[in-house]
Amino acid sequence: MSQPPTLEEIRRAPKVLLHDHLDGGLRPETIIDLARETGYDGLPTTDVEGLRAWFSEASNSGSLELYLQTFDHTVGVMQTRDSLVRVAAECAQDLADDGVVYAEVRYAPEQHTSTGLSLEEVIEAVQEGFRIGSEGRGIRVGTLLTAMRHQARSMEIAELAVRYRDVGVVGFDIAGAEAGYPPTRHLDAFEYLQRENAHFTIHAGEAFGLPSIWQAIQWCGADRLGHGVRIIDDITVQGDGTAKLGRLAAYVRDKRIPLEMCPTSNLQTGAATSIAEHPIGLLRSLNFRVTVNTDNRLMSATSLSGEFSKLTEAFGYGWDDMQWFTINAMKSAFLPFDERLALINGVIKPGFARLKWQA
Ligand SMILES: O=c1[nH]cnc2c1ncn2[C@H]1C[C@H](O)[C@@H](CO)O1
Ligand SMILES: [Zn+2]
């Protein structure tokens, strides 16, 4: 049997990332530069390594609500056109350097208007950054516009997702604290998106359980689930090792609803206890449409290769598993079908074939 792939080898694999927050992936040195340039004086430290460590430690709180407080600092330095262009460009570069060939990156435009930018100016700045950072690097970046679930701007953001859909915005999402803010609070936005034949994912089943997943799918019509780990609450593993699926889990699997799983992030917010015990192992073995994601590379001190490497270690995954997760992700992307197929057949399969041949 061949050796399990190393982190360096995993970095060379053509990977697909569906769940990554723009404001959760800044380089610490960039945060410090931007704080200086824009006059943001709230940073806990201006030492690069100190700041890197601060983010990952502060995010290990075991609670989504506390985890989300760390975003005050990243959002705090992303309030000008130049800073948004820079952060988006560096995001595309960092993902390309990690071997990501297709990414969907999300952020909430409404959080970037505190010094006077309009929502349109925010969106156009981020698109410009993705264009600059992707050029010539073998990566394509699609944007998801997020609305914050505790706010009441989802309809406005959904309309912008539709307005900008031919210029790089591929879908919509809601994020933020889950408990107390059910997806149905934003039903009008989801119904509007469905009438417009637009795509959306919903953060659900991370800090709240099955009712949140059920609403996201059966009331709101989500195409994908952000995290969705708590679907495990509807699966019983019996004494003989076989799994019995409840009606909702069966529906999610039967309909091939993609789960955007983010293992390290789940440990930090308390949604899972360890990588080895993470529901992704069971869900993968039961052939749910599982994908592997980063969520917030800065807060989790990770990369997509890093997440795959941890899973390889915990579950003994090899190239075939990694290719399976990657093709799942590409099939689930909010790109037109022919473009997804072209990436699968022209980039992903040949890339993995090369790596397997070398192994
Ligand atoms: O894992 C998450 N769950 C819910 N909300 C999240 C998560 N990661 C980031 N966010 C929030 C904080 C960001 O400011 C916002 C938009 O990217 O989305
Ligand atoms: Zn997220």
Automatic annotation (TrEMBL):
GO molecular function, one term: 2'-deoxyadenosine deaminase activity
Residues annotated as binding Zn(2+): 19, 21, 203, 295
Domain Adenosine deaminase residue range list: 14-349
Cofactor or coenzyme needed: Zn(2+)
Key word Transport present: no
Co-factor: note: Binds 1 zinc ion per subunit.
Residues flagged as site, Important for catalytic activity: 227
Active site: 206 (proton donor)
Gene3D superfamilies given in the database record: Metal-dependent hydrolases
Reaction equation(s) it catalyzes: 2'-deoxyadenosine + H2O + H(+) = 2'-deoxyinosine + NH4(+); adenosine + H2O + H(+) = inosine + NH4(+)
InterPro entries: A_deaminase, A_deaminase_dom, Ado/ade_deaminase, Metal_Hydrolase
GO CC annotation, single: cytosol
Chain residues that bind substrate: 21, 23, 176
Entry EC number(s): 3.5.4.4
Alphabetically ordered keywords of this record: Hydrolase, Metal-binding, Nucleotide metabolism, Zinc
Function: Catalyzes the hydrolytic deamination of adenosine and 2-deoxyadenosine.
Similarity field: Belongs to the metallo-dependent hydrolases superfamily. Adenosine and AMP deaminases family. Adenosine deaminase subfamily.
HAMAP family per the UniProt record, alphabetical: A_deaminase
Protein's name in the database: Adenosine deaminase
Organism per entry: Streptosporangium subroseum
Name of the gene: add
